[in-house]
Structures are given as structure tokens and as C-alpha cells.
Amino acid sequence: MRLWTTCLVVCLVFLRNADALNRNDVSPLNLQFSSSSAENQDNYVTDKTLSELESGRYPAVGYHFVRREGYILKAELKETIPLYEYYHPQLVDHVLANSSFSEEGYQKIRLVGYVFGEFQPNTTTGLYQYYSQKFQDHFACATALGMNEAQEVGYKRLGVIGYVLTSEPPSDFVTVTQDMNAVWWVAQGQNRFMTVGVNHVNNGGMDDGVGGRESVECQKQYANCGDSLSFAPVLGYSPYYNSTMARYGSEEKWAKNTRQRLLQWNFNTISGWSATLMEHQSDLFYCHLLDIGTTWLNHGKMGDVFSQAMHDQMYSIAAKQVAPRANDTSLLGWQLDNEFNLNQDFLAEYLAMNVSAAGRHRAVQFLQDEYKSIEALNAAWDIHATSFDDVVNHLHDKKLNTTRYTMDKDSFTFIFATQYFNLSSSAIRHYDSNHMILGMRLSSQNAQTVRAMIPYIDWVDQHMYSDLPQMDVLTELHQGTGKPIIIGEFSFTAVDSNLPNTRGARANHAAATQVERASLFTKYVTELARAKFVVGYHWWQWADEPATGRWPDGEDSNYGLVHIDDDEYSVLTEQMTEINKAVQTLHKSA
């Protein structure tokens, strides 16, 4: 039985004599696990992320995230004691302990933070030291279940290290946390919930929901195009907008009615491309999509992330969109971009840039750092470049060593992704330290980009339009990042909607009826709710797409909760009303 199957975390209460504590005053204590064989394993409890572990003084490679053990203080307070990390290089054993630890062969590496020396009622739990002679492994555990399992597999308790906080200090702003069963939740103050949302809650007017980043492109062809995802080029207007204006007379009345229906159907969140009017509706949380690097119109294209122009673009977008919302307690956080293709050959792309481009210089520098001389690169790649600047002209040579090139391509992908996530998060944090960074809305990913995003995001947003969630993929993402997972887009369509359903993620996979559509929804979200690491799901989308196709890709599918005339699909929404409420309870027992 593996120790990492255990769990933690109790209730949120203000710390005694430390009412001023906030989230910035504490660090999470994470259990990372590695096992090279049945006889060789290491339970590594640390405040470091996986990417930080791999690049540290004593690199820890091959670990995966298991769970959060609690929280420690960054600075010393009354009644706290220092917590240190010790390391035995021969045994590859990481130890978290107080200053009384003194075993032969172990070196004190660093001060990790501070824990309480005595139990603080309602706010702390004991962090105990266990040791296995069989595995030659120390294990710091803060859960009763974990302690029982430690004893079952032969670990012996050595004593208490100190007392850790069981959760972050309460905040009016939204965060993510784990409960006593290691189940992840979205949390605001002492309120914990799954975020159950709908994307693109928009009436199809002039607001594209992303600060005009996409409408400006559509308006190059159609002056009256605002919300491009609702605009029908064949018609020359947005049919949903016309329907709602005829029914309600104003966008404000539409928004009020839409809010009431969302709450009635037990949704609590609106997400990407939703109208600004909807962000202002009470009792609903929202995620805001920035399009900070590119737009969904350019899935495969993004400017030079190393350039001053990209720096200026990201900071300008943050100034316009982040700053005005920085103190909004209804905001869950910031979505960076949507479905940008992360499986590209960024090394080839950047080497092919103009010789004066910052990205070109960074790619060439990467090769110079790796090989030192062009002769060494030529030998490794089996090419005959005359200089590092000439390498780009040999990427299609017949004798190119593709294995070695792929290794270098992957390394540069990590550099590219690190720059992107670092620059975008820095722009956001320049204006807002209160809200979560929700990462990129992913349709693709790879080991390099997943590793690069870890220090900068609070959850992983994965889009998944399969009949059922691919739990193996989601589990790997969670273990590889240490972050909770949200399904940022999923949906089902049906033939009886009388829409073509020929384009889009569910193209030509429509169910026969709305009854079957509702059944698919139920099976999908029920399975999600049973996963401890899933914090929610966001349906795509509020209203059906135009039958004649939207701009610019012609999608024409029955993704909506409502028809183009704004009548609801009652079979679906009645099922959603029941299931959206049930998943909150189901997730508690995950």
C-alpha cells in the first residue's frame, strides 16, 4: 500500500493571535512521491513545486504530486519554531524536521518555514515523523489515515515535528484548497464548492467578452460584428442578438433573466467570452478570458514571446482588463489564452525569425549554450551548418539526427513556455495579487509545457469533448503539476435540434435526442465529481450556434442550453438542475 494514498486538511479558522494572516503569509506543504522499485521509495514533503524540485541544488527527478499536507508560515511568529529540510545523498532521502534532527549522513539544506511548537486548537494538526528501515525513507505525515497506513507498511513513528496550519487563512477572494479527505474545492472564505459553469454567456451584441480582442478582427469584414462567436456571416448579423432584443427589449433585461435561469439550473459560474454585463450579476462567480498572448482565431500563431512588443501587449491588456477587476470578489481568476497549439516546433519557428528578432537571438543562444561550437552541433545533429545562424537552413537535411533534434526541440519548448507563463503572470500580478491565475484553456499539452506552467498557475484547465472524461489523462495532469483540474469546455449535441452539427468539437457525433444529450451530460459530470482532484466543469455554451455557421469557422452546432430564440432545452436543463446540485454532495464523498 502506497503512503501517498492518504489525505488531509480540516476547517478554516482564524489563527490565534494572528488575525492579520493572509494567503501570502503561508506556503503549502506538498507530498511528492517517487518509487524506482518496490524496495526504493521516497516520500518527499516540501513547499517546493515539481519544477522547482527538478532544478534545485539536489535535483529530485521522477516525483509526482500526491496531495497537500497543510500550510506552514513563511515568517516567524509567536510560538513558532523553524522547519528545516535535510538530505542524505547516498540514500536519496529527503527529510522535513525541526532543529532537533541529527542523524548521521544527513545534511541540513535550508530553512523551509515555520510551524507551531504547540497545538493551536481548531487551526493546526500535528506533523509527525515516520521512518522505514526497509525503504530507508523518512516521511512527514499530518493525517490520521496517513499515520495508520504508515504503520501498516512498517513505518515507525519517531515523534512530532511541529504543528501545521490545516488550511490557508480565510479570504474574501476565491482560491482552491483541500478538505480533510484530500478532496479539492474552490473556496471563498469558509464556503467550498465545485465551480459549475457555462461558457460564452453572451447575447451576441457588440461585447465579445475579451475586451474587443476578437471583435476588432471580425469588424474588418463586418462593421456590426461584436460577439464574433454569435455572428452569422451568411446572415450579416447575430440571430441570437436579434431574438433576445425582440424578447427583452434591452441587454440589461436579457442579463437579468439569464442570471435567474442559471441560478435556477444550479450553475454558479460563467466563463470565457461571457458578456461584461453578466460579470456584474449577483450570486454568480466568473472567470475572465484575457486573450493575453493571442486569440482563438490564431490557435497556431503567437507573437515573439521574448520581444518588447509582446511584453507591452501583455501589460497593456492587463492594465485594461485586469486592473479594473482586481478587487472583485466574484471573480474566480484569469484565463490567459484559449486552445493555443502547444505541440508546435517552436525551435524551428524561432530560428526562422528575422535575424533582429529577440526570439531568434534566444533560440540561437540556446543552441550555443548547449553545444558551445558549431562543430559540436553538426556532429550531434549530423548536419553541415557553417554557423549557428545557418542552422535554420539545415533543419530538413535528409541525414538530420531527428532523435537528437527532438530532444533539443523539446528543451526549447520548455524555454518558450516558461517565458510565456512567466511574462503573462507577471503582467497580471503587476495589477492584481488577489485572484487565481487559471492558466491556458488547454486542448493540447506536452510534458515540457506542463512542467513549465507549474509555478505560475492555480489550476489546470483542460478541454475534453469525449463522451466520458478521460480520467487517465486528467490524473496524469494532476500528478504532473500538483494542481487541481477543471474541465473548461465540454458539451453534447443532438440531432433533434434541427441544427446541422457538422462543424465543431462534436461534429458528426450528435446524439439522436435531447433525452440522450441529457443522459450524456449526467454520466460525464458524475464521473468527474467522483475524482478528488477535479474542482469543476464549464459547459460549452449558453446559446446554440447559428444554423448557417458562426464567424469565421462556420461552426453550426447544438451546444446551447437555449435555442437561438432563447427558449430553453427543457429536457436538458431539468436534468442539469438536478445533477448540478447532486455533484456538490457527490464530490464530498470522492
List its salient traits.
single chain; 590 residues; alpha/beta; 9-stranded parallel beta sheet; 3-stranded antiparallel beta sheet; 15 helices; 29% helix; globular
Number of strands: 21
Structural class: alpha/beta
On the 0 to 100 scale, the average pLDDT is: 92
User: What would you report as the Rg, rounded to the nearest angstrom?
Assistant: 26 Å
What percent strand? 15-25%
Extract low-pLDDT stretches.
Answer: 1-18
- Give the % helix: 25-40%
Largest sheet, in brief, is: 9 strands, parallel
What global shape is seen?
globular
Report the total helices.
15
Q: Strand order, main sheet: write it out.
A: 17-16-15-14-13-21-20-19-18
Q: N-to-C terminal Cα separation, in Å?
A: 19 Å
Topology:
Layout: E1 26-37, E2 40-46, H1 50-54, E3 64-73, E4 80-88, E5 93-97, E6 107-116, E7 124-132, E8 137-141, H2 144-152, E9 156-165, E10 175-178, E11 184-188, E12 191-193, E13 195-198, H3 215-218, H4 239-248, H5 251-264, E14 269-270, H6 276-279, E15 285-289, H7 308-322, E16 331-335, H8 346-351, H9 358-371, H10 374-381, H11 402-431, E17 436-437, E18 441-442, H12 447-453, E19 460-463, H13 471-481, E20 485-490, H14 514-529, E21 534-539, H15 570-588
Parallel strand pairs: 13-14, 13-21, 14-15, 15-16, 16-17, 18-19, 19-20, 20-21
Antiparallel strand pairs: 1-2, 1-3, 4-5, 4-6, 7-8, 7-9, 10-11, 11-12
